[in-house]
Design a protein that fits this description.
By secondary structure, the chain is α+β, with helices and mostly antiparallel strands. About 25% of the residues lie in helices and about 15% in strands. It starts with 13 loop residues before the first helix and ends in a 53-residue tail after the last strand.
């Protein structure tokens, strides 16, 4: 007989057993359930993303957009200012952006006559720090380094070693006559004169009178570059040069050397202030020298005779009676110079004008 207990010893009543069976079929209210696919996906995203904290209720963060109107306004303002400065001060704008800087790659040495002049670059105002800026001379060599001396070989009465010494002395004359600082300041060119054959009568007469009473026939500028110290002074320690020596056999077996060199002198007024005008005086010289055989020509050993001399000068004045290069400053710089226009940097043609300045007062197209 039953006593109110289950055969296996369970103490559940019949009512409890019946409720258990119903809940097992319907599912208990607090029984665990399998999560849906959406729930699993949300759980995974929350786990992978860093904790940003809870968003505010009904909060909204709009996307960041560039302030295009402000940017274009600033660009337009800057462009307007640049155009205004370019119209008022074009030279200053070129200086600011450094067009045609003088630190360009150095030009290779000149070994043959060029076929055309150097390209025209943007004009720039020279300064004491950069007196050659805006000029083709900015890439030229300085001093004697700009005068190319060819390789020597035997010619006429001279062997190779003698030709080499004659070429070196020919360049020494160019240095002593057109680059020596004392001579450029107007002092007597004793070193240069010592290289000239003292037995050459016409040149001896020129030298005897040129420095005392200069005139068109006896003008020291025919052979020497010199400035009047009370009027002009060189800027810095550099004179730019470009040119070359060539040679061949001349009359009676002589060594004939031809020098074709352009010298660029930056000068300013004597005792100039910090921001005074700088002018570039440009002199191109062509000299033909004869190293004669002492057995055939009366000469002093170690000297040459001068066969011809030509030169052209721009920004150096036109008055041969002064005996000095006279660069024009300020109001003296005439915009309506007479004569043929000339590019003083164009070395593609020989120096013209006979045995003196020729049309040396022509107007330079650039300096």
């Amino acid at each position: 007989m039953g006593t109110g207990t289950e055969p296996d010893g369970s103490s559940r009543s019949d009512e409890e057993w019946e409720r258990f069976l119903r809940e097992s079929v319907a599912g208990a209210a607090d029984s665990p359930k399998e999560p849906s696919a959406r729930a699993r996906d949300l759980t995974k995203r929350l786990r992978d993303e860093p904790d940003r904290g809870p968003d505010g209720w009904r909060s909204y963060t709009p996307p960041v957009r560039p302030k295009r109107r402000v940017v274009w306004y600033v660009v337009g303002l800057v462009a307007s200012l640049v155009l205004l400065m370019l119209a008022l001060m074009p030279g200053r704008i070129v200086d600011l952006f450094g067009a045609g800087k003088s630190d360009s790659a150095p030009l290779a040495a000149e070994t043959t006559r060029p076929t055309q002049g150097p390209p025209v670059e943007a004009a720039q105002r020279p300064t004491k720090e950069e007196p050659f800026r805006g000029s083709p001379a900015a890439t030229w060599a300085s001093g004697a380094a700009g005068i190319t001396v060819p390789e020597a070989h035997a010619v006429g009465w001279m062997g190779t070693a003698e030709v080499e010494r004659a070429l070196a002395s020919s360049r020494d004359f160019l240095v002593a006559s057109s680059l020596d600082r004392a001579v450029l300041r107007g002092e007597h060119p004793a070193k240069a004169i010592a290289l000239i054959n003292p037995h050459q009568k016409d040149v001896r007469e020129l030298l005897e009178t040129a420095f005392q009473t200069p005139n068109e026939k006896n003008d020291p500028l025919l052979l020497f570059s010199r400035f009047q110290p009370s009027r002009a002074q060189l800027v810095g320690d550099v004179v730019k040069t470009r040119g070359r020596l060539t040679y061949r056999e001349g009359e009676r077996g002589a060594l004939q050397v031809t020098a074709d060199v352009t010298f660029v002198y930056p000068v300013t007024r004597a005792n100039a202030g910090g921001d005074d005008e700088i002018v570039r005086t440009i002199v191109r010289r062509e000299l033909v020298l004869s190293w004669d055989d002492p057995a055939k020509v009366i000469t002093k050993p170690g000297t040459f005779s001068i066969i011809s001399y030509k030169y052209h000068v721009t920004n150096g004045g036109c008055d041969p009676s002064k005996g000095y290069l006279t660069p024009p400053f300020g109001k003296d710089r005439r915009s309506d110079e007479a004569g043929t226009k000339i590019d003083p940097y164009d070395r593609s043609a020989p120096v013209g004008g006979g045995d003196s300045t020729g049309d040396g007062c022509g107007k330079a197209t650039r300096s």
